[in-house]
Amino acid sequence: MFGQVPLIQRRKRAIDRLERHSFLLRSLSAPGQVYMDTGLAELPVPPSESQVDTAKRAALEDILRVRPIYTLQGPPGTGKTTLVAHLLRQIFEEDPVAQVLITAQAHGAVDVLRSKVRNEAFQAVADEKLPLSVRIGMESDDDDQEVDGSVRQVATDLLRQSRDRLQLIECRSNLQNAWLEATMVMLEAVSGRSTSVRLDDFLQTVKRGASITYCTTSAGDLEALANSVQSFDWAIVEEAGKTYAFDLALPLQMGHRWLLIGDHKQLPPYRFEDHENAIKQLDEVARGLQALPGLNYKTLDLEWLRWWSELESHERDDFKKYVDRWLNAFKQFFSSCSRSSGEDRVTTCESVGAAAGKLTEQHRMHPAIGDLISTVFYEDELINRTEEDGKPIERVTHPMIAPAGIEGKAIVWLNTEWAARDEAFAERGRPDGVTPYTNSMEADALTCFIEDLRASETWLASSQDRRLELVALTPYVQQVALINSLYDQAKLPPYLTLVKSAFRDIGPAGNIVYRGQLAHTVDSFQGNQADVVCASLVRNNGLPPGDGLGFMKDRPRLNVLLSRAKRLLVLIGSWDFYEHQLSEVRDDLDPLWHWKRVMQMIRKDVGKRSLIIPARYTLR
């Protein structure tokens, strides 16, 4: 459990520290009590329409005019990260000495945002005028290695720049000579050739003085900053919908204004259902904790256990309802903020002084995929910005002409047999056949489909070295392992490349390196995207209608699964099995209505923008 105990302790200390932040607690629990609207004003840097659409501009205007807290819902493909990047440009144009803390639950989301800020929002800004930014909480095991974006690397760059500029000055002042000498000493220490107390002091100065600090919500370095009484003008949390409140406690208490960005209609925090079940059985959980042999006082909150044991039965029921309501923290924050102005108000296409907003223009997906996501999960609120004159724009169309019929289609259902109708189904392919968590026939069909893909000669001739990103997604870790063990990456067509975004390492040059593989779980891939997404649905059994979908029942998980593809979405599974499972679904009151609508829309679009074809296997 290395790393887990310190993490639990950091969370506990952050929660205890909240008692000193009464204004933050009011802002989170009752934002209407602290809501302020300073009025609509022109944005400090008018953004171009090509980068910031109408919904983003309205959100930017309200984020800047409403205080102290704002929540923003960003459905798939609507550009949450782009909005944050341009918000930073507005903040620093208005207040060049502002300090902003940006956190996310996962390292990957932080890395993507850093890249977006530098390469998009501040693209036209000269290097010497860029806000100083550092990435904390990801130092290399090698103390001498300069990790890209780390405090050490940023400080080293500053020292080198200072040295080079000072050396160009012919007649230096005494102060300039002293600073040049200091930079030379510190650079010697950086290279490991000497030691310097000045260097340690300079590193701390850079860390505390950075304009933008990036880190994960639970980084140990973040607590160190909090203990040093560091505070920020803004605390921005990306992917807040995937973060529990106990991981929000530390980053939020370090800010004076707060922006939470997420989407409660996508995946909730990790192991959310386990937390829900624990709350429902809290009496049993408390008894089990009290009965543990050799109580670990470092990880067990004995004060809470004593408090719980003294509650009356009705008080315990009230507490469980309260915790259950706040378990999905972002959903509760969004609901509270939308009413903080005194009426139910959400920013969509124009600034209205709301404390909650929703992005409604999607720029990622082919219109066929965008329509599917909008209708099934967002009540037809999303607007496709990936079509012109009723036709999809080039960057969301794929060049594939094989398998037969795939040309011009954005959604393909690769149809496998239904196990309940085929006694030999589990005997073909791999020995494991079909289990609740693996499906070797789908893995085999996926391999064949990739082999059968052919891009048009016209596209190949014009694309030169351009390659399309490919990923396989599935709800189950076991199926991920199976697909990756069966697929030979050496057989990948030259115009395809695997997405490299789930596993990060520090490379030999101190840069962040991502290891690519074909298959990933849906949960690990939220926030990412690919040109071609192949979804292995896995479930295939003879259970009664509604009982056989397992993980695939989950509406947010299906939302993420279907919304990662930009150009081509391929669903691999038995159409007959899913039709059987949904045969008793009649209306939108049924918990499986979202699946019913998915299949209805695909079937309706067959021959136009979607396609259903039989799967091919290697053993046939």
Short description:
With 620 residues, the chain is an alpha/beta fold. A hairpin with a 2-residue loop joins strand 12 and strand 13.
Question: Could you describe the 3D structure shown?
Answer:
Strand 22, helix 21 and strand 23 form a beta-alpha-beta unit. The chain has 620 residues and is of the alpha/beta class. The protein has a seven-stranded parallel β-sheet with strand order 5-6-4-7-8-3-9, sandwiched between helices. The chain is built from 23 helices and 24 strands. The protein is globular.
SSE topology:
Elements: H1 4-17, H2 22-29, E1 36-37, H3 54-65, E2 66-67, E3 69-73, H4 80-94, E4 100-104, H5 107-121, E5 133-135, H6 151-168, H7 174-190, H8 197-209, E6 212-216, H9 220-227, E7 232-238, H10 245-253, E8 255-262, H11 272-280, H12 282-290, H13 302-309, H14 313-327, H15 329-338, E9 356-358, E10 361-362, H16 367-377, E11 383-384, E12 387-388, E13 391-392, E14 400-402, E15 411-415, H17 440-452, E16 454-455, H18 457-463, E17 468-474, H19 477-486, E18 496-498, E19 503-506, E20 512-515, E21 519-521, H20 522-525, E22 530-536, H21 555-562, E23 565-573, H22 575-581, H23 593-604, E24 610-614
